[in-house]
Amino acid sequence: MDTVVVGAGPTGLVSAVALARRGHRVSLVDNDPGPTDAEHWSRRGVMQFHHPHGFRPQAVDVIRAEMPEAFDALLAHGAEPFGPEGPPAGDEVPRGSGLRCRRMVVERELRRVAESEPGLTRVRARADAVVAEEGRAAGVGLRDGSVPADLVLVATGRTAGLADGVRAPVDSIDCGIAYVSRQYRLHPGAGPARITSPIGAVALHVGYVVIVFLHDAGTFSTLIARPSTDRRLADLRHEAAWSAATAAIPLLADWTDPARSAPISPVLPGGRLHNTYRGQLDDRGRVPLPGLVFVGDSVCTTNPTAGRGVSTSLMQVEHLLALLDEGGGADPEALALAQDAWCHERIRPWFVDHLATDASQTARWAGEDVDPTRPPTSDLVVSALEADPSLMAVVGPYLSMRALPDSLAAVHPRVQEIYASGWRPPVAEGPTVDELAGLVASVVGPAAAGAPPAAPATARA
Ligand SMILES: Cc1cc2nc3c(=O)[nH]c(=O)nc-3n(C[C@H](O)[C@H](O)[C@H](O)COP(=O)(O)OP(=O)(O)OC[C@H]3O[C@@H](n4cnc5c(N)ncnc54)[C@H](O)[C@@H]3O)c2cc1C
Predict the structure, then answer these.
(1) Ligand 1 centre and the CA of 253: distance in Å?
(2) Which of 69, 117, 192, 222 is most deeply packed, by most CB within 10 A?
(3) Each residue of 287-345: pLDDT tens digit?
(4) Beta strand 120-124 with 25-30: parallel, antiparallel or unpaired?
């Protein structure tokens, strides 16, 4: 079958290689020129590319199944596998392990494998339209010419709108947060600072959250996720403000101590983040163009602090491949319907879960207390683990995405009891959001506030 995959992010790369290995003649269309060297890849159009990523087992298992050599290369580059209890004990990396690695390094390896895959042709171009013939998808149109195909996969990510006109409108809700992050590398011989979770370390503060993501070969990212409506903290993107803030927040101060590590990227600001869901069907519930399937972020995006996006993307790829393996390509309308139904059942619940948890976080950041008379949102259930670790039997499978969010209903009564007793999630030592905003203003000063930061001397990421 002739297949065109539009978009060479993780979704498109894994799909294209997996289909080529199943005998499809695959064209992979993307305009990105690729990395300039081992440490530089600007990746315009994917704003999150250099922001911290953690790779959950669901994503890693699909990569291992479809592109095992990419996984092996990542380990050789110093990517660290991890399980619920941390790195695996022996040499053998068990299935179901996550991966600590920079997104750039992961994508570079996926791309390297795709580039040498027989049966896969890279087309460096932007796709402008999906071509329709006789009521079904027949390829994609480029500025100069077109690529004909029997099957068109759209893996264009969270913002691109290729063929969006044929689908029902997107459900989209602001996550209420914005990212400011920076990458660092540990000095040779320097050990890590405090690790509190499989991905690195997390600290909940009054009005914001900080996270340390461990990556490959001694690299790590620090992240301040701030309320997106709080413009005062937008100035964290200025180098001086970022340095003052990281020095004032104990968890980050420890990790970014100049005796322990040095930055390897500029301070990276992020845009507004949305939870989005958009299925395969048109607004009347019909398959708009048989032979056209949307995958990855073009179907669903969720609040990235939970680190689910690459997993929900590659889980879609895995399911689509299973449908095609069962002969689903013979009936393209049934293929789109089956993929849509599965995504509705297995992917959309994560989007719905974030609508509630993000709204609850935003309300608490604005000073609202928990209402124990109402069913708790999933983030409150997870926080309650600190008060009652026995909840882990139910919360663990949710945390690792082996159980859907509605599984948490089983512990709602117990969690409500905990909050009704007056218990509240502990807040980490460090400045409140107002104190942090004051610090940022004192460093940046009114003249610079709101102005773009000066160009960094060494923009290595
Ligand atoms: C700030 C942030 C942090 C995140 N952190 C995590 C994390 O920790 N863990 C996690 O699992 N997920 C995380 N995610 C989500 C993750 O980044 C996405 O799920 C992932 O990028 C989805 O991959 P994709 O291939 O579907 O889309 P993308 O990675 O966006 O790739 C889309 C590709 O399509 C190309 N393209 C677009 N339009 C066209 C066109 N018309 N023609 C040709 N090519 C086109 C683009 O150039 C790009 O190469 C995060 C997201 C954000 C925003």
Answers:
(1) 30
(2) 222
(3) 999 999 999 999 999 999 999 999 999 999 999 999 999 999 999 999 999 999 999 99
(4) parallel
The rounded Å distance from CA 447 to ligand 1 centre is 35
Contacts of residues 142-145 at CB distance under 8 Å and 24 or more positions apart, as own/partner, are 142/29
The finding on whether 102 has its CB within 6 A of some atom of ligand 1 is: no
Task: State the closest ligand 1 atom to the C-alpha of 162, by its place in the atom list counted from 1.
Answer: 41
Note the helical H segments in 249-300: 250-256
List the residue whose alpha carbon is closest to atom 12 of ligand 1: 309
DSSP state of 320: H
Counting ligand 1 atoms within 8 A of each CB, the residue from 15, 17, 30 with the most, and so the one to mutate, is 30
N residues, the chain: 461
Tell me the CATH number for domain 2-171+274-350: 3.50.50.60
Map residue 89 onto helix, strand or coil.
Answer: coil
C-alpha closest to that of 220 among 79, 414, 347: 79
* Residue whose C-alpha is closest to residue 197's, from 306, 48, 310: 306
Q: Using the 8-state DSSP alphabet, how is residue 273 labeled?
A: -
Is the shortest distance between the CB of 126 and ligand 1 below 6 Å? yes
The two tokens of residue 136 are 């079904």
Which candidate, 181, 179, 180, 191, places its Cα nearest to that of 264? Answer: 181
**Could you give the maximum distance between any two Cα atoms of the chain, in Å?**
67
Residue showing tokens 């409500």: 416
Q: Is 431 in the pocket of ligand 1 (CB under 6 A)?
A: no
31 Cβ inside 6 Å of ligand 1: yes
